[in-house]
Amino acid sequence: MMVVSNTAPLIGLAAIKRFDLLYHLFGRIHIPTAVYAETVSSGHEEGGAKQEVSSASWIVVTSVQNPSGFEDRLSDLDHGEAETVMLACELGADWTLMDERKGRRRLAEYGLAHIGTIGILLKARHLGLISSLRPELDHLEAHGFRLSADLRKRTLRQAD
Question: Over the stretch 9-48, which tens digit does the pLDDT of each residue have?
């Protein structure tokens, strides 16, 4: 399975000490150089993501090979999101891990499947990797993850 990740799911899952779910659900994950920079090189330490990303042997930093074909069409995205979409297209990703709405729209335009932090937790719950979703959502919100009351309710309903 080919999986590419943007920054937010890495930070969110590291913050709630559930970074290992990424490996259990997806195995090897590719991240573009901009995402590596945001989480490790030039980014500030957020919830343990710097340590998790830099030490995970199953995360592969991969450079975008042909950015010129995308730049104009992705100018509304930040650098990490744009590189994530480009890399997902280049690699023909089966899944792209992305929380940002604009980035998810771009992925859909290119016909690429995407899943966000909440979807990852929901998938982990359905596979029995976590016993309850409510405490995980509480932890995310405690670490600044914004979650509408409606999305929270729908997610908890899907978990059961």
Answer: 999 999 999 999 999 999 999 999 999 999 998 765 566 8
User: pTM score, two decimals?
Assistant: 0.92
The 3-class secondary structure across the chain, one letter per residue, is CCEEECHHHHHHHHHCCCCHHHHHHHCCEEEEHHHHHHHHHCCCCCCCHHHHHHHCCCEEEECCCCHHHCHHHHCCCCHHHHHHHHHHHHHCCCEEECCCHHHHHHHHHCCCCEECHHHHHHHHHHCCCCCCCHHHHHHHHHCCCCCCHHHHHHHHHHHC
Q: Specify the pairing of strand 95-97 against strand 114-115.
A: parallel
Domains of the chain as residue ranges with CATH: 3-159 (3.40.50.1010)
Tokens, residue 156: 């908890």
